[in-house]
Amino acid sequence: MTQVYNFSSGPAMLPAEVLRRAQQELTNWQGLGTSVMEISHRSKEFIQVAETAEQDFRDLLKIPSNYKVLFCHGGGRGQFAAVPGNLLNGASHADYVDGGYWAHSAIKEAEKFCTPNTIDIKVSHEGKTALLPMGQWKLNDNAAYVHYCPNETIDGTAIFEQPDFGDKVVVADFSSTILSHEIDVSRYGVIYAGAQKNIGPAGLTLVIVREDLLGKARNDLPSVFNYSVLADNGSMFNTPPTFAWYLSGLVFKWLKEQGGVAAMEKRNQQKADLLYNTIDNSGFYRNNVATANRSQMNVPFQLADAALDKLFLEESLNQGLHALKGHRVVGGMRASIYNAMPLAGVQALTDFMLDFERRHG
Ligand code: PMP
């Protein structure tokens, strides 16, 4: 069988070693004669899995002890509602930085709870999409918090700066970039991420919340979204997505074996450089994002002639390069190259791109 490299934006590829291990132990996990999916989340065996996964995640991101880590349901969009529900604390306004599709979607959801102060940071730089640096974000005094999305999965834009807004509560949607580069968690009030890109299977959402922000949820917020309820119950107020939690735990172990987040950051830089250099050095492919804001996780690119898109997708699929079709709102192609994508996968993609250009350019 051809080696397959899966460039899906999410649910996305998982490390092959992790999948093999899960396969090996699937039907007889820890000698119990059942799978990990079939045991109680309150059993001592599962509690061990849950605690180890949390500790490894904490180690990987160097999460300070005054932060809770919540393993919950509802995905990124669930958090679009949970964030205002937990953090407004009676305030009527919150700052929302609009840098792309997902930041904008968070604003739409927040409108159900408050009046978002929208801060549009999209600008054009030499004909390419760019984002205003944090120093130029005009935050408002009436805002309960400021929300932004450091990596826009669809637009292929990223903000690499770390926030430094004094005592403002900063909330960030790390769904498509968590664990891909080092961050200083202490600069954030809340970080959240759906698991299905850089962590594990869909169904699990991770929330990192500073303890002083707990206990402020509005009364009518459903309990499963209430950070304090989840924290008080060790993320087991309702039955958590146990299989996704277990598998994410295997991914955390794998990340540690790879050298942790710092090592991934280096590898991700190499992968992104290879792909962007291939695009920039060709007259055939084009990426429309200014260099400083190019995502290292999601790389959209266009062919010189959109009429060739279909052929590009057919040929790439035949070569084992899967899921390169761009999001419908952007068109063209998109390669998502999260932690689990090896350099060899990006090399296979760029080899194919150059060959395709030679034949059709
Ligand atoms: N935020 C970002 C940055 C995303 O990429 C996505 C999903 N692609 C979401 C939020 C929404 O996540 P979910 O589908 O888990 O609700």
From TrEMBL:
GO molecular function: O-phospho-L-serine:2-oxoglutarate aminotransferase activity
NCBIfam families (alphabetical): PRK05355.1 (NF003764), serC_1 (TIGR01364)
Domain Aminotransferase class V: 4-349
Role summary: Catalyzes the reversible conversion of 3-phosphohydroxypyruvate to phosphoserine and of 3-hydroxy-2-oxo-4-phosphonooxybutanoate to phosphohydroxythreonine.
Record protein name field: Phosphoserine aminotransferase
Pathway membership: Amino-acid biosynthesis; L-serine biosynthesis; L-serine from 3-phospho-D-glycerate: step 2/3; Cofactor biosynthesis; pyridoxine 5'-phosphate biosynthesis; pyridoxine 5'-phosphate from D-erythrose 4-phosphate: step 3/5
Enzyme class: transferase
Gene assigned in the entry: serC
Co-factor note (free text): Binds 1 pyridoxal phosphate per subunit.
